[in-house]
Design a protein that fits this description.
heterotrimer; A: alpha/beta; Rossmann fold; six-stranded mixed sheet; 17 helices; C: mainly alpha; ABC transporter involved in vitamin B12 uptake, BtuC; 73% helix
Chain lengths: 521, 382, 357
């Protein structure tokens, strides 16, 4: 049994964790929930040896232990699977799993033995993995499995999963939970860091709720509801934002208009037809690398969802639409004019903006400041520029107001963007792209890794854009999200569109089959 | 970080003490002797050739000292004897001057280095090598009160014509005469092919080549001379490559005039001999026999040392004159080093070479110093 | 200022380490004498000036330090601007050689009045260097050749072409008779950069040009939107491209500017002190530029500061020979400082990725 006792951890004087105590027992499935920045990951990083607590202690079976490095944590049977995988893409599954403690024969890597050992581990815990495959070629879900196998292979007794389902399809998520259930049956302790209340309720045997660096509650799923959990996670913190002075503690709050613990405003089941023209984007028999013969129309004022399992052409589609990927045949028309040259610059000039899937790669430059990032893409236009010069006051003013309207915290325009938490980074990106009042918005996985409040805020923003008459293309691997937000859904499989559904036709099972390439007779 | 600061403070304090405190055992400036400064070209100390020869003239012959890890120590009697060749033993006297030597890392260093020597109060400043011509000219003009010696080139004006400066002595050598003698020797030792490795392809090195070719032609008219230029004077690797190439083409004797590149030439010959080939190298400028005693047949010795010593000696005697000097066989400016290895009919061979030397000194043979003259050169009968 | 700390500490540590090394190989008294002499040689022999009142004791060292500083600044800027867009320009040496030759040829073959002649020479050098840097940029964009490889190779191409052929062949200065002359024809007096401190010091307009170039580069990189684009490209090509920045154009522009700076460095060398293209371009100015850029952390004013310091140390370092300390100590200091800076930056990066909550 592991005990974390009275852990306090500060960064630059700001408490990330304040007097947190937590037990992790063998065979249990503990869910650790809370908003972004609530301290969930920090707490687990303490356990995993990445952070040293300023106060408090870590006990293994009653013994106080100082865990200084992840290697020491591993030696004590604690493994962690991070949101960002730590695999070497060019190596095989086996090589990744044994990396760091490779079996050797006469001083040389014994790959045959390694593969057999890894296969054994997979078999023991019921993983189906091609251990000879190169990691780069695996789906995200499989890569995650590799991460888990890697931890299991080192004989961990406690497995920490940091937001594991953020990157998975519903089917993959179900599989993951089945696996973790087997693990806990084998006596392992599994700790799940998550925002998704539904999966937490389904998965865990115990739930610890964190808020602003403190543990505020510990509940058992049977005695609670998602609404109650949401309340625990955010109600107080919203009041603490200082905007609800004089309000009661349980008053439903937040500033951005999103009401996380109430059902979201769904779009109407049927849409009134909108005038053609402004911002209509059409693909006709378009073929590009990874895409085959796509024909689709994106209308102003609608949210068009793209459903599909990861790697079936969604990314390529987004890249074509935003000018990042050339196409080989077919046509792209914008506002009924065929486009011959399409670059990110031209796309932006036409009012087509992009909230990419991988914000750290495509949307933000972590080493630039927040205000520099805000100017990115519009840096040559007012208020960011005066002629060839950067307009520093203009940039600052716009950034300040943008941080305010989008509730990006901290409100520091000069902070490195890399210093923001993931949720705040995404809020920044969304805020930036919407600030330009786009005609077309290409959104990929906009809520990945965000907490409830942030998810609600982002979704509300999408609806606002839709109401403004913006054409929104929503690509998400989260089928629930696609169905919840879209007016119309296209299913993609192997680079083709394999189905189109209007709101009235939404049926998870039918869509699921199409996503897997099964065409109904 | 703190440690670094402490060290800095300590160093500064030390520096301050050094300056302010009394320094009882600081060397008082010696009774004013003569100081002779020398700036090497990029070949630098240890080129075993041109620069070392100049340094020998200054440090060993004139000052009776040698540089050891940056310090000067006096020569022992044996060392001095080994340094001064037998035929000059009577003439070369220790002059008791103080040497100051600056090496140059790059072409751009010549001028500041010469100026720095002048600023050190040197009575004579020596620029070693034609590459310093420009720099010596500039510095001599800027310091009309100082004396200069320029080796290997006259002072040239912007058009490339020789000009005289009142405070500069220049010494050039008749390299073609010395090269002629080693060429004659090479022709007698080799059967079919001899090689020549030059540094930069410039008139100065062409003089070596022309004399060498004429010498070979005189003693072995049927032999072919293969020539390679490395394009540098400070790249051992290039010299080695060139020599290996020549050996592989069948050259039996390879003469080099390539500064430090020549060390590579000798290295290559040494290795070829170790691999069983009967080949010889001929060194240049200094007697390079010690680099590879079994492989170096002889060396075309250019008495840069003598020129430097002579200038220092004249300075001491108050007889230093500006102007251009030319040193050939007759003046003892060029010669060939003693042949220390055994060759067939050694005595007869050397006798033939010595006969040629006499003819040149007597003016009976005019050795060509460039390609044009070489074409019209008719070999003397032996 | 805090960002400059690693560089400053590295330089100080490097000097100290070299001092200790010199002290251990010789003795500390000699080392102290030698290092003091280096300091006087770098920034003026003030004691001698106070003793004798000879202004040349100060002006001359300043001149030598200044000329070296100017060239180092230019090559340092060359590497730094390429670095800004994430390219590693190892080709500054070749670009400098091309620029130097261009300046020497225009200076010698063309006749023009005063400042016009200088301007033409500088323009030719900048253009030559820029075009020579364009080659690797095009190779990268069209063929995907990594710029490190191509720029390194092109260095040797330039050196072989210029030093081993043009300068000893077609462009060699004519000398009468059998006299050997090294390098190309001397440039006309109209092309010489004006000396700033009179005849006794070689300090020339080059240092002013270098200072202006550094300042202008700094302003460009920090105040102009195009400078911002370069920064974005350098930090994340993907994000820059996705946000509509023309990454390829950024590469081309930065390499052109890098080459132009290296070429100008060559021009300052020729027009300032050498007055002709010498037989071989001795010092590895272009490679030193890499050190200047890295120790200066790619900041144009940092490059200027570091170049000024090392220009001085290297000019003064010659004097160490007077005390029997090896002539290469200034280079040793530079190399050590570079090593320490690199290590330091690596450290910081490590700590930052580890410590981000």
């Amino acid at each position: 049994m592991i005990e974390l006792r009275h852990i306090t951890k500060r960064f630059n004087g700001v408490a990330a964790l304040e007097d947190v105590s937590l037990e992790v027992k063998p065979g249990e499935r503990l869910a650790l929930i809370g908003e972004n920045g609530a301290g969930k990951s920090s707490l687990m990083n303490v356990l995993y040896g990445l952070y040293q607590p300023d106060q408090g202690e870590v006990c293994f079976d009653g013994q106080v232990v100082k865990v200084k490095t992840p290697a020491e944590a591993l030696a004590r049977g604690v493994g962690m699977v991070h949101q960002h995988f730590t695999l070497v893409p060019t190596l095989t599954v086996t090589e990744n799993v044994v990396l760091g403690h490779e079996p050797t024969k006469a001083g040389r890597l014994d790959l045959v033995r390694a593969r057999k050992e890894v296969d054994d581990t997979c078999a023991k815990f019921g993983f189906q993995l091609d251990t000879g495959a190169v990691v780069r070629e695996l789906s995200v879900g499989s890569q995650q499995k590799v991460e888990i196998v890697k931890a299991l292979h080192r004989g961990v007794k406690t497995l920490i999963l940091d937001e594991p389902t953020a990157v998975l399809t519903p089917q993959e998520a179900d599989e993951l939970f089945a696996v973790t259930r087997r693990l806990s049956d084998e006596g392992l302790a599994v700790v799940l860091i998550s925002h998704k209340l539904k999966e937490v309720m389904a998965f865990s045997t115990r739930i610890a709720v964190m808020r602003r660096g403190k543990k505020v509650a510990e509940v058992v799923p049977g005695e609670t509801s998602p609404e109650h959990l949401a309340q625990l996670m955010i109600s107080l913190s919203s009041r603490e934002r200082g905007e609800g002075r004089g309000e009661g503690p349980n008053q439903a709050p937040p500033s951005s208009g999103a009401v996380p613990d109430q059902p979201l405003t769904r779009p109407p089941a049927t849409l009134s037809p909108l005038p053609q023209g402004e911002g209509t984007l059409q693909l006709t028999h378009l073929t590009a690398q990874g895409l085959h013969d796509l024909t689709l129309t994106l209308h102003p004022g609608e949210i068009l969802g793209i459903a599909g399992v990861d790697g079936n052409g969604q990314r390529e589609l987004a890249e074509v639409l935003t000018g990042l990927r050339p196409w080989t045949s077919g046509t792209l028309t914008f506002e009924h004019a065929p486009i011959t040259r399409w670059t990110p610059h031209l796309a932006r000039a036409h009012g087509v903006t992009h909230i990419p899937e991988d914000r750290l790669r495509r949307a933000l430059i972590t080493d630039l400041t927040v205000e520099e990032n805000v100017s990115l893409g519009r840096h040559t236009q007012p208020p960011f520029a005066k002629g060839p010069l950067i307009d520093f006051p203009g940039r600052r003013a716009l950034t300040t107001s943008l941080l305010e309207t989008n509730d990006v915290r901290p409100r520091d325009p000069q902070l490195r963007a890399g210093g923001l938490s993931g949720g705040n980074q995404q809020k920044l990106v969304v805020g930036r792209e919407l600030d330009s009042n786009p005609k077309v918005l290409i959104v990929v996985q906009p809520t990945r890794g965000l907490d409830i409040a942030a998810v609600a805020a982002v979704r509300a923003q999408l609806f606002t854009q839709r109401a403004r008459g913006c054409a929104v293309l929503l690509i998400s691997l989260d089928l629930d999200e696609v169905l919840e937000l879209s007016d119309r859904v296209l299913v993609m499989y192997a680079g083709r569109i394999t189905g189109e559904f209007t709101r009235a036709q939404f049926d998870e099972r039918v869509l699921g089959r199409r996503m897997l390439g099964v065409v109904d007779a | 970080m703190t440690l670094a600061r402490l060290c800095l403070v300590a160093a500064l304090t030390l520096a301050a003490c050094k300056k302010d405190g009394p320094a009882p055992d600081a060397p008082k400036p010696a009774p004013k002797g003569l100081t002779v400064g020398l700036v090497t070209d990029v070949g630098g100390r240890g080129d075993q050739s041109f620069n070392d020869s100049a340094l020998r003239g200054l440090e060993a012959w004139a000052a009776n000292q040698k540089s050891l890890d940056g310090k000067y120590v006096a020569l022992t009697a044996e060392e001095r004897k080994a340094s001064v060749p037998a035929e000059l033993e009577a003439r070369i006297k220790e002059l008791g001057i103080k040497p100051v030597v600056l090496q140059s890392k790059a072409q751009e260093d010549y001028q500041p280095n010469l100026q720095l020597i002048v600023d050190q109060g040197a009575d004579l400043t020596v620029g070693t090598g034609f590459m310093l011509e420009n720099a010596v000219e500039t510095v001599a003009r800027q310091n009309p009160g100082s004396k200069f010696l320029l080796i290997d080139s006259p002072v040239l004006d912007a058009k490339g014509a020789p000009q005289a400066l009142p405070n500069v002595r220049t010494v050039v050598f008749k390299e073609e005469e010395g090269s002629f003698l080693v060429g004659a020797l090479a022709g007698l030792v080799a059967k079919e092919k001899v090689g020549f490795v030059g540094g930069m392809e410039i008139p100065l090195i062409k003089k070596f080549e022309a004399g060498f070719r004429a010498g070979v032609k005189t003693t072995n008219p049927k032999a072919t001379v293969l020539v390679q230029y490395t394009g540098s004077f400070d790249n051992v690797g290039q010299g080695k490559q060139a020599a290996q190439d020549l050996v592989s083409k069948g050259c039996e004797v390879v003469f080099h005039a390539a500064g430090s590149d020549g060390n590579g030439v000798i290295q290559a010959i040494k290795e070829a001999r170790a691999a069983g080939k009967a080949v010889f190298a001929i060194g240049v400028d200094s007697d390079q026999s010690h680099l590879a005693p079994e492989a170096v047949l002889t060396s075309m010795v250019k008495r840069v040392d003598l020129a430097v010593w002579q200038a220092a000696s004249d300075l001491k005697a108050g007889a230093f004159t500006a102007g251009d000097q030319t040193m050939g066989l007759k003046e003892g400016g060029v010669t060939y080093a003693p042949v220390r290895i055994e060759i067939p009919e050694k005595a007869a061979v050397l006798q033939k070479v010595e006969a040629l030397r006499a003819k040149i000194i007597a003016g009976e043979v005019k050795v060509p110093s460039n390609t044009t003259d070489l074409e019209s050169f008719t070999a003397p009968t032996l | 200022m805090r960002k400059a700390l690693p560089s400053i500490l590295s330089v100080i540590s490097a000097i100290l380490i070299c001092f200790i090394a010199a002290g251990l190989t010789r003795d500390f008294g000699t080392a102290l004498d030698a290092f003091t002499a280096m300091l006087w040689g770098a920034f003026g022999d003030w004691p001698k000036f106070l003793e004798t009142g000879a202004a040349t004791a100060i002006l001359r060292p300043l001149g030598e330090a200044g000329t070296k500083a100017a060239i180092l600044t230019f090559t340092g800027l060359s590497v730094a601007v390429a670095f800004r867009v994430g390219l590693f320009n190892i080709g500054a040496q070749g670009q400098l050689a091309v620029g130097a030759l261009a300046a020497a040829v225009v200076g010698a073959k063309l006749e023009a009045p005063g400042f016009l002649h200088i301007t033409l020479c500088l323009a030719a050098a900048a253009l030559g260097g820029a075009l020579y840097a364009l080659l690797p940029a095009i190779l990268k964009l069209k063929r995907g050749v990594h710029e490190v490889i191509s720029t390194i190779m092109l260095n040797w191409v330039a050196v072989s072409l210029i030093d081993n052929w043009l300068v000893i062949g077609p462009l060699r200065a004519a000398a009468s008779g059998d006299n050997s002359i090294s390098g190309t024809d001397q440039i006309h007096a109209t092309a010489e950069l004006p000396r700033l401190l009179g005849d006794s010091s070689r300090l020339n307009l080059g240092l002013v040009l270098a200072g202006v170039a550094a300042l202008a580069t700094w302003l460009f990189l920090t105040r102009f939107t195009r400078g911002f684009e370069w920064k974005a490209i350098g930090l994340s090509q993907d994000a820059a491209r996705a946000s509509g920045i023309d990454v390829d154009r950024g590469f081309l522009e930065a390499m052109l500017l890098a080459g132009a700076f290296a070429g100008l460095g060559g021009a300052v060398l020729i027009l300032g002190t050498e007055l002709k293209y010498p037989a071989t371009l001795g010092a590895p100015w272009g490679f030193d530029g890499i050190a200047m850029a890295l120790i200066g952390q790619g900041h144009p004013l940092g490059v200027l500061a570091v170049s000024t310091l090392f220009g001085g140390l290297r000019a003064g370092g010659t004097r160490m020979q007077l005390f029997g300390v090896h002539k290469s100590f200034p280079e040793l200091m530079q190399g050590l400082a570079l090593l320490l800076v690199a290590a330091k930056l690596m450290w910081e990066r490590l700590l930052r990725t580890r410590g981000t909550p």
